[in-house]
Amino acid sequence: MTPETIRAAVPADIDAIAGFNAAMAWETEQRRLDPATLRAGVAAVLADPAHGFYRVAERDGEVVACLLVTYEWSDWRNGRWWWLQSVYVAPAARGQGLFGRMYRALRDQARATPGVCGLRLYVEHDNARAQAVYAALGMTPEPYRILHDPFRD
Question: Which of 6, 79, 111, 136 could form a disulfide with 117 if both were Cys (CB 3.0 to 4.6 A apart)?
Fold first, then answer.
């Protein structure tokens, strides 16, 4: 197996990332996302770094994993949390430590970036496999519950 390259996403990756996001929504929540809205949302991140940034893992010229980082300001810490979202590894690339390599590279980048105070992510309550992966990487549960009031679905 050829080792993967972990890199910043580029516009040519939009379709792969949007496809992964659609697959993740179905796998985790049995939700079908609107493809046009999803593609536009991915493109918006790549067009405006204020929204965040994507990292992808590529093997043999094919994107096999992605993650999105968005930002949250913490007045308590006078710093910025990096939130991991849209984490997805293609089924054929799972169980090989790929996400761990992506996470460690991102953690190193975050630690080297002035003003970043830590990494956070949310995970489905019933996704024990993902929770075990995150715990093995040193992440610990937060004492918070996430609530929302969506204006668009």
Answer: 79
Per-residue pLDDT reduced to its tens digit, 70-125: 999 999 999 999 999 999 999 999 999 999 999 999 999 999 999 999 999 988 88
Q: Rounded to a whole number, what is the distance in angstroms from the first to the last CA of the chain? A: 40
This prediction's pTM: 0.92
AA identity, residue 4: E
Q: Which domains does the chain have, with CATH numbers?
A: 5-136 (3.40.630.30)
Q: Letter for the amino acid at 53?
A: F
Does residue 103 contact residue 87 with C-beta atoms inside 8 Å? no
Q: Which stretches within 30-142 are classed as H helix?
A: 35-47, 98-112, 128-136
State how beta strands 116-121 and 79-89 pair. Answer: parallel
